[in-house]
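Form 7-S
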Amino acid sequence: MADIGPSDRRRRMVLRLLAAGLIGADAVAHAPRTWAQEASDGVNRLIGSVSVNGQAADVGTPVGPGDSVTTGPDGHAVVVIGDNAFLFRNDSEVEFEPEPDNIAVRALTIVSGAVLSVFGPGDNTIRTPVASIGIRGTAAYVNTGAAQTYVCVCYGEAEFRSAQGQVLDSVRTFHHNAPKRIHGEAAGARIEPAPVVDHTDAELILLESLVGRVPRSPARDTAADGCTVTATPPRAAWTSEVSVLIKGLFRPTSGCRG
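Output:
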């Protein structure tokens, strides 16, 4: 499995740079509208070594169905395709499957590494070496290697299947309340609860804003692990997180979030 992720210090630096040019302290109230005006299909932000279809990428490099994106050891990227947006961690490789209309992305394969994704309405599929995740109207963080896959459906619905097609579980989540770790066939093609790691609400706000949306407001829900997420008015919930993002002081999530 890919390394869990950068240190707190590196994350702060990376996210500040990814947000450079997108936000200012005076833009909090209108952040989603402002950021969405800046976004276009393809690579929107990058740091370090990033390639598209094996060629070095830059801001503005087109990305669409049928393309692949790879980040190096120092590489991070934000990619927008239609009403979907993706944040690539370092050492990641993703293949977007071809689509008849060549515009919308409905399926992608994460060959290795870690990607945070937000999707527009409709059914989508994320494949990894050990699992297939069918999702609807959701955000998901996936970190995978050859033997196991970590998945947090941040909000929305998902069905988890093994690479062989066996249904392992399904979830309906509101706020990071049912992360899973999926083991490959060598370990019995099984699924188990996992903690929340290496992704934040602030990153979700950044991605959703690029496609003209705001994340779903946290709603009260009690998961099987006993974590309870308390309902919060949408404006208060996400304005607080935007402020944290702008200040660059947030840390990777761990444990239940309330």
